[in-house]
Amino acid sequence: MQVVCAACASANRVADGRDPREAKCGRCHAKLFAGAPAEVTGDGLERRRRQNQGVATLVDVWAPWCGPCKMMAPQFAAAAARLAPEVQLVKLNSDAEQRAAAELNIRSIPTMILISGGQEIARSSGAMSADQIVQWTRQALGKAPAAA
Fold this sequence. Notes:
The protein has 4 helices and 7 strands, in the order E-E-E-H-E-H-E-H-E-E-H. By secondary structure, it is of the alpha/beta class. The strands form 2 sheets. A 5-stranded mixed beta sheet has the order 3-5-4-6-7. The protein has a two-stranded antiparallel sheet with strand order 1-2. A hairpin with a 6-residue loop joins strand 1 (2-4) and strand 2.
């Protein structure tokens, strides 16, 4: 497994058999799966798309003025702890990262995009609860939803 650190954006390999939840970045020593979504820039998202291996990336595209985005933020954070280490959750501010939002073809917010193997595999617009986020993500990854 290779995971981009949420704190410093360095790529880190996690050895087979090692619990990824306990893994720390070799550069900054932050936990690779902190149980909370990380804020990313467009460049940071592209780095994850290219370098994350063995872990999917779930992107929440949002804006500070968006009411549904504000409602979903704590739900997205709660889902992060439940989806790790299979999925790394990140947030992309569409106002601050307009070019990245345009490249992602964002038409409404909040929009979640699930990336695996460098490719978008699923997309959903509209606010969801933590349970819905977890279920949608696991279904998109081809896994049975876990009991809530």
